[in-house]
């Protein structure tokens, strides 16, 4: 991703502030499920936004990541030109016990 | 509900056949969440379709109940003029352990 492509620092919602419906809606999407699963397999802060293998354009990917941030599932930070991600696994598990396990176990 | 208002027997999907995304999407809706919670508080086959306290019309209610049947969450049968419902709690729990508990515990 180009330097300066992120104009503002990302806004986050802590899982403790997330309604159940928001969490369910965030996970009820195939692209977002893929993002969550890919993040679960990677070490924190190692996956940049451009590194995900999902069949959507950059704007849609930004939207999906914003939904995941808003549901307390993903934390992002900028490291120079890269925006890197981590799954908020422990915090989300504390708020919604078992939900991520179910999602990561998959079908 | 009037006699004969249901033309065909309802179609059901067993929870074992339900993809995770379908289950999450079915639950990620405030009306359907209310239906599931009301059913969880009632004995099986005691709630008719007209008995739910949800702010939607009859066609929308039918749609929501069809989504819940398709996600393996609700079973319906006709008893004379009434279509009655039950939550498929045990079967759904076996397929998606912990998900209904999370939903029923609420926010």
From TrEMBL, chains A, B:
It comes from Streptomyces fodineus. Residues 12-107 form the HTH arsR-type domain. Keywords: DNA-binding, Transcription, Transcription regulation. The keyword Transcription regulation applies. SMART domains: HTH_ARSR. This is Transcriptional regulator. One of its GO terms (molecular function) is DNA-binding transcription factor activity. InterPro entries: ArsR-like_HTH, HTH_ArsR_DNA-bd_dom, HTH_MetalResp_TranReg, WH-like_DNA-bd_sf, WH_DNA-bd_sf. SUPFAM superfamilies: Winged helix' DNA-binding domain. It comes from the Bacteria. Pfam families: HTH_5.
